[in-house]
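INPUT
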Amino acid sequence: MAELDDIIHQPLRLKIMAALNALPAATGLEFSRLKKLTGATDGNLGAHIETLAKAGYVSVDKAFVGKKPQTTVTATATGRGAFARHVATLQEIIAGKQS
Amino acid sequence: MIDSKQASEALAEIDDIVQRVRQSQLYQLSSEASLWWGALVFAGNLVTWLWPIYAVYAWVAVDVLGVGGLVAISLFRPSRTHVRTSDIRILVTFLLFFAFGLFCTNILGHFGPRQLGAFWPIYFMLFYTMAGLWFGYVFFAIGLCITALTLIGYFCIGESFPLWMAFVNGGGLILGGLWMRRS
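OUTPUT
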């Protein structure tokens, strides 16, 4: 049986990866929208995005839209693969109970 | 390692967030359509109120520009959402919807300008209200509010009914679009 991914398994990081994975490849979510979707605080969300970025699971792009700074977070191919494996492992755990 | 109950909870959490992302994407797309139609409907009603003899031309222009705008929105943001906007079924649905409206207003009944001014917004908002039952409470709320205000205007407002509708229908769609953008 495959191992759960410790980086993704943390509840908020799981939500972040699930949200980003629901988008088409190379499409990101703005920080403010991600915050609203996950219900996290600025600091907490920022810290967990940094953890995911260090693992290579997400990329973070900072740009100015007009005079406002805008941070966009996008799942990388590595992150999408890790998330898919994590979900498969969760399904295996559930199936194991049923057999 | 976690047990199967915790694994089920994690998968449920994933499903929940995926649903929220899709609803958010749908709201983003719909907000653009609502803002576009809101501006056009506002202009159409204003022309109807100020220059009633040009109303027919104004509404033809509103419909053509409205549909053209929807096509442009579909074509220019295909990759930002999983919501399939270029599906031919959307166009066919819109055409059937529009054809039935024309059948009601011109063949089953011979509606005057005032009746037409009330029928089309209520008809379109019925679509919004029903869509809201599946896709999100914002559609439901917008549909219900505009329908109620249209009926109030129809029964209580006199010659200024087109002006009332410019703000109620056009303004309502614009406000609804902004609300969806923030949701």
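end of record. Chain A touches chain B at residues 4, 9, 11, 14-15, 18-19, 21-24, 26-27, 29, 33, 36-38, 87, 90-91, 93-94, 96-98 (CB under 8 Å).
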